[in-house]
Specification:
globular, Nucleotidyltransferase, domain 5, alpha+beta, 2 domains
């Protein structure tokens, strides 16, 4: 039996997953580590944590499952995107990694955009320059730590630093590199214009390849440290969202994933390079060779439902505790007592601001249309409807770009409730399915390793073999109801945008 390993370099933990050649999960190991917030808006991490976790987790997953090193035929890497690891001429780390969720770079985003031009940035990179991306982090170090930058000879993303330690070589992949603001996403190579805007030379960055390329191999030193065999192929891998999409079978046009976690992510495969004209959607290279993906992110998806449970669900929580049932099941049953559309009660799920389709940190959660007719079931249902309308915003932007959507694959909290699955099908106006894959990005990284090592002929073949639908929900009678309410939902943000800004100033004044 042949085995494959996928490693996910997360923000708070590393997950190492072991699968066999038919895609069955054999075992996994997770190692936790901290990150630091030394100043407001800052988020940093010592890359040494990743290497320790890599060595420990690989050894553990092999030992616990009695797998011999020669039987592992490939390893794939994925992980948190956008982070900045700077190395000196001796390949030593110069400062803690600035993580994806670090927000210190507002000025640098504006500076880079002004140098290149907003429209040209979108044309080249598929996205606006965002505070979380890598290029403004480099510019921040240039501006604020010139003595550090003067020593820097290489900039790496988190998973690519782990690759360097595993192989002694510098490589990245096009999907992860798409989140740097330095890649020409249409041409799938580093952008000379974006590099020039920061005064960077091409060799400051690693070589970039397609995700299924076996770009490096396990070195003798890494073999001794991990228990793997020297020469084991390492797939280029991908960013976490692209890798998760590979593992979930989002590898053909027409198939979209809708993941309702704390945040909500809508991810679509695209056979061609499509860019939303206002930059409301992320446009990245996919981990599928020669393909791209579009992605929309809402900041408080299932997180809004969690907030509602904590703020207004005390009675349901007590009932759940007494009966041994799940409180969210009780709340969705309650929501089902109200009619579709909640008799005009609409909820904006902007509890943490918003990203897609409204990149506005000042946007606020809002109940609109409340009357004496509304009771607890109406309020509960309106929260679920508002979250689902918010996810649908991304789907509509994708359709506006000419992307046909034939199937939405649901995961996260929204895939655990038949009621919410039906609501999604009705609002998305699409078939919604669930699948047998629940392992996330590390699983996709292992699949990419399988393609890189020849276990699978290509990603599409691997997906067809591994990913199976476990349920299907089609739009029902409420589709027509939601098609009437959705435009009313869409109209609320433009009507309230200025009020969100003004109330934020009032709150700040009286804090």
């Amino acid at each position: 039996m042949k085995y494959l390993i996928g490693i996910d370099v997360g923000t708070s933990s590393m997950k190492t997953l072991l699968i066999n050649e038919v895609g069955q999960v054999i075992g996994s190991a997770t190692e936790f580590y901290p990150f630091e917030t030394p100043k407001p808006l800052w988020s940093e991490q010592d890359p040494a944590h990743w290497w320790k976790a890599t060595c420990v987790s690989i050894k553990r997953v092999l030992e616990e499952n009695n797998v011999n090193a020669p039987d592992v035929v490939g390893l794939g890497l994925t992980g948190q995107m956008h982070g900045l690891v700077l190395l000196d001429n001796d390949n030593k780390v110069l400062r803690p990694c600035i993580l994806w969720n670090d927000q210190r770079t507002g000025k640098q985003c504006e500076d880079i955009t002004n140098r290149v031009g907003k429209a040209h940035v979108l044309e080249l990179t598929g996205n606006p320059v965002l505070a979380g991306f890598t290029a403004p982090k480099i510019a921040w170090v240039q501006d604020n730590e010139p003595e550090v930058f003067a020593k820097a000879t290489k900039a790496l993303l988190p998973k690519d630093y782990v690759r360097f330690l595993l192989s002694g070589e510098f490589f990245s992949d096009v999907s992860d590199a798409s989140g740097t603001s330095l890649l020409n996403v249409g041409k799938r190579d580093w952008s000379s214009q974006m590099l020039d805007a920061l005064g960077l030379k091409r060799d400051f960055l690693p070589e970039v390849t397609e995700s299924t390329v076996a770009s490096t191999r396990i070195s003798a030193a890494a073999a001794a440290a991990t228990g793997l065999l020297e020469g084991t192929p390492i797939a280029a891998g991908g960013g976490d969202q692209a890798a998760q999409a590979v593992g979930s079978g989002i590898v053909r046009e027409g198939i979209v994933s809708a993941t309702l976690g704390t945040s909500g992510v809508v991810f679509a495969h695209s056979d061609q390079y499509r860019v939303e004209p206002s930059g409301k959607l992320h446009a990245f290279c996919h981990a599928v060779p020669g393909k791209w993906h579009l992605m929309g992110v809402m900041l408080s998806a299932a997180g809004s439902f969690e907030w509602y449970k904590n703020a207004l669900g005390a009675a349901e929580a007590a009932e759940a505790k007494a009966s041994g049932r799940n409180v969210f099941d009780l709340l969705t049953e309650q929501a089902a007592e109200a009619p579709a559309g909640s008799e005009g009660l609409l909820f904006l799920p902007y509890l943490s601001g918003e990203r897609t389709p409204h990149p506005d940190p000042l946007a606020k959660g809002t109940f609109f249309g409340m009357s004496l007719r509304h009771s607890k079931p109406h309020i509960t249902r309106s929260v679920l409807e508002g979250i689902t309308f918010g996810m649908n915003d991304s789907l509509q932007l994708m359709r506006d770009l000419g992307l046909e959507i034939n199937e939405v694959r649901a995961s996260g909290g929204g895939a655990k409730s038949d009621f919410w699955l039906q609501m999604q099908a009705d609002i998305y106006q699409s078939k919604v399915v669930t699948t047998n894959v629940t392992e996330g990005a590390a699983f996709g990284a292992a699949v990419l390793a399988g393609v890189a090592s020849g276990v699978y002929s290509d990603i599409d073949t691997a997906a067809a073999q591994i990913v199976k639908n476990t349920g299907e929900t089609n739009p029902g009678p409420n589709e027509a109801v939601y098609s009437d309410y959705y435009p009313e939902y869409q109209a609320l943000y433009p009507a309230l945008k200025d009020r969100f800004k003004s109330i934020s100033k009032v709150v700040e004044k009286h804090l």
